[in-house]
């Protein structure tokens, strides 16, 4: 987090010495030039700490101090005074100044006092932004996989963690994009900084710019107080921009500028300042398709996808399902105090066969429900929703006869959805299975697969991107170099 300091010191030599002491990457010092409008400026855009000469305090002080104290992020005020009168000191403190220092003190002593205040401030802001994590701290180990469907993923991720580049994470809903972003942050060089997650899809368009970059007091109707933006809060940490595709075009331009120049300008402010933030963006629709549709700027897309990680859906890494389920059972059994130790064989088979359209999120919810229902030490078929328990009935490999109508088992809860959505979901799932099957059959040769499908190779590439499929994952041993 960036700590803002306003340094309004009358004596220029002292001001210069303090400026040098405060020159640190997590401190932004502002030295107001205009003496006349100084206090208006301090109230309009309050810093965390205001260091001010006694002679620059406004008159009448009591009322003006109240304006500042009414602010939700009311700053700490340090007054440098040449008065040694204890009554004057008591008067200033009573009006809301936090600390009084005698100007004749050595600069190191002034610096020590300011250091302590800054540290307190840092802790205070840290506390107010702390959001408890419902699940155990995400780690990269959560994503370790032997599944061929995860080969590209496993190759890319360790390199990304060590670097400090912008990352774009793509993947269907519930695959763990946010969890992965948190793990990258926790295991990367910024782990001491804050991780700020922002769901761009949930922000009203009118507030988005101010949420991202902050605003000054009076910047727009209703901006009764200044507010810092999430970029500033995430200074020296990571900002996770979830559903980045939902950012409207006119704000995309501003976001691009911030990513290029590493500077933000709060709404209504004339000045911009530097921030050091790693951006991890996520989207559950392939952004390239949004670019082609004209909904997402190509230049911003290229800036974001310095590295793109696609988290494959659970159905292409079925090998990982048992381990994920066991971990979740262990975690939830401990959290709920239930003595469940695993899943019975039939239940595990059903869980592995189910296609998990909602991915890990859906799976974790099913396990949570099963643990609640479970009266035994093992989860059984009875503890699973009917649609999943039924998937145990289909024996492996016993597909429909060639060219007969495919056998589709409609999950019960889908009957509550409109036909339009069910049809779209099934067509998409059918298409995905078809493309995946073709790639498997052709050992990942896209040209050959496209010919069989009777479509253009470019269209097939687009579909592969849409479903998070990579030709490398289908190359058989020996077929790799061909
Ligand atoms: N590998 C994993 N191990 C354990 N839990 C996981 C794993 N991946 C995801 N989860 C859990 O699944 C849930 C969904 O994950 P997350 O919110 O990261 O998904 P998402 O891809 O961001 O989904 P959406 O696109 O809907 O926002 C979370 O509760 C997360 O902790
Ligand atoms: Mg998410």
Describe the overall structure.
The protein has 482 residues and is α/β, with parallel strands linked by helices. The chain folds into four domains: 127 residues, Rossmann fold; 164 residues, Rossmann fold; 91 residues, Helicase, Ruva Protein, domain 3 (Orthogonal Bundle), CATH 1.10.8; 66 residues, Arc Repressor Mutant, subunit A (Orthogonal Bundle). Helix content is 43%, strand content 13%. The protein contains 19 helices and 16 strands. The strands form five sheets. It has a five-stranded parallel β-sheet with strand order 2-1-3-4-5, sandwiched between helices. Helix 3 links the parallel strand 3 and strand 4. The two termini are 51 Å apart. The C terminus is likely disordered. It binds adenosine-5'-triphosphate and magnesium ion. Magnesium ion binds next to helix 7.
How much helical structure, as a percent, in the residues? 40-55%
Total count of domains? 4
CATH architecture annotation of the largest domain: 3-Layer(aba) Sandwich
Q: On the 0-100 scale, what is the average pLDDT?
A: 85
Shape: elongated
The CATH first-level class of the largest domain comes to Alpha Beta
Query: Any idea of the CATH topology of the largest domain?
Result: Rossmann fold
Low-confidence stretches: 128-134, 395-405, 477-482
Quantity of strands, as a count: 16
Q: Supply the CATH superfamily name of the largest domain.
A: P-loop containing nucleotide triphosphate hydrolases
Strand residues, percent:
5-15%
């Amino acid at each position: 987090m960036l700590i803002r300091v306003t340094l309004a010191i009358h004596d220029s030599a002292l001001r210069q010495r303090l400026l040098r002491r405060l020159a640190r990457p997590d401190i932004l010092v502002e030295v107001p030039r205009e003496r006349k409008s100084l206090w208006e400026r301090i109230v309009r855009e309050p810093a965390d700490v205001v260091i001010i000469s006694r002679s620059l305090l406004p008159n009448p002080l009591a009322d003006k101090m109240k304006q500042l104290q009414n602010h939700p992020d009311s700053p700490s005020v340090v007054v440098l005074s040449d008065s040694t009168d204890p009554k004057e000191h008591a008067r200033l403190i009573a009006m809301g100044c936090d600390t009084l220092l005698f100007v004749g003190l050595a600069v190191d002593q002034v610096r020590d006092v300011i250091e302590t205040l800054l540290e307190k401030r840092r802790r205070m802001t840290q506390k107010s932004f702390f959001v408890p994590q419902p699940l155990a701290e995400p780690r990269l180990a959560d994503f370790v996989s032997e599944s061929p469907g995860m080969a590209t993923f496993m190759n890319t991720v360790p390199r990304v963690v060590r670097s400090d580049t912008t990352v774009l994470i793509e993947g269907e809903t519930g695959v763990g994009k946010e969890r992965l972003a948190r793990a990258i942050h926790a295991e990367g060089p910024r782990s001491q900084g804050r991780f700020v997650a922002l769901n761009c899809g949930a922000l009203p368009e009118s507030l988005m710019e101010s949420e991202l970059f902050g605003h000054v007091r009076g910047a727009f109707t209703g901006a009764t107080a200044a507010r810092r933006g999430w970029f500033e809060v995430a200074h020296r940490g990571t900002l996770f921009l979830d559903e980045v595709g939902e950012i409207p075009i006119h704000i995309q331009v501003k976001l691009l500028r911030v990513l290029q120049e590493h500077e933000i300008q709060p709404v209504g402010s004339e000045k911009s300042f530097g921030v050091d933030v790693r951006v991890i963006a996520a989207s559950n629709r392939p952004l390239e398709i949004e670019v082609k549709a004209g909904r997402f700027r190509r230049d911003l897309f290229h800036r974001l996808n310095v590295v793109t990680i696609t988290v494959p859906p659970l159905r292409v890494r079925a090998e990982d399902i048992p381990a994920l389920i066991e971990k979740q059972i262990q975690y939830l059994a401990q959290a709920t105090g239930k003595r469940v130790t695993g899943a019975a064989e039939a239940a595990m088979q059903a869980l592995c066969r189910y296609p998990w359209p909602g991915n890990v999120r859906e799976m974790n919810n099913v396990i949570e429900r099963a643990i609640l229902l479970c009266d035994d030490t093992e989860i059984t078929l009875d503890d699973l929703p009917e649609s999943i328990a039924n998937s145990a009935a289909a024996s492996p490999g016993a597909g429909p006869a060639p060219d007969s109508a495919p056998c589709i088992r409609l999950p019960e809860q889908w009957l509550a959805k409109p036909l339009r959505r069910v049809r779209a979901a099934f067509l998409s799932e059918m298409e995905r299975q078809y493309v995946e099957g073709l790639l498997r059959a052709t050992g990942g040769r896209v040209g050959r697969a496209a010919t069989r499908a009777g479509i253009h190779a470019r269209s097939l590439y687009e579909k592969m991107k849409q479903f998070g499929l990579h030709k490398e994952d289908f190359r058989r041993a020996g077929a790799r170099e061909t």
